[in-house]
Amino acid sequence: FAPANDEVIDYFKEGHLLANKKNHKEKQRQQLIFSANIDCDNGYLIYDMEFSRPHKNKDEADKDINNNEPDMLAIKFENHKPVKLVFIEVKSNKKACTQTKSGAFAHIRKTAGALDEFFKTGKDKYVEIRKKDAKEIIKGYASIKLHDLNQEPDWELENIDVEILMVFTDEAVDWAKKNVDDMKNAADPYSEKLAFATVDANGKILPLL
Description:
The protein is α/β, with parallel strands linked by helices. It contains 8 helices and 6 strands; from the N terminus they run H-H-E-H-E-E-H-H-H-E-H-H-E-E. The chain has helices at residues 11-14, 21-36, 58-63, 94-98, 104-121, 126-143, 172-178, 180-186, and strands at 43-49, 72-78, 81-91, 161-168, 194-199, 205-207. The longest helix has 18 residues, at 104-121. Residues 1-13 and 60-67 have low confidence and may be disordered.
């Protein structure tokens, strides 16, 4: 669904969060960002929202120290070519940034840990599977001419790089600017894959720094 105004939200999925105005704001920002970033030229094509790392059961999920649920998944484009698979996390207030289990540092460490499993051991097919999923989902968009995709894209996604994109809005922007170096340290040894962003009034992703 696409947000028509600040009051639009998926009540069936997120209605229980409306009692907390800060959570409500963050969900609104996520929806706006999801709808605004469909750029296949130079920017981000967000193709999935509220993605959960798959597990066989709850017990396996609880034991997975790198278990993480990015807010969105995207493909980053440069000069009409896909260059990165992007794991996006949105933070809209200071509390969301500093929470022990789900704050900015925790999210970065868990995502970096998942990448470590993939790049170093090859046992975790998390990234590989996400790239295949992206290709199938975008093919589906093209089949119904969604996002101005009039034909099935001939994109090779298997060898594209990976990016962890932290998007900060509202009061979280000031917090982020003060904590950039610490967030980079949390991403070690993948700090070069970590990027920071904010959004304009329409939800379009812009560089934070």
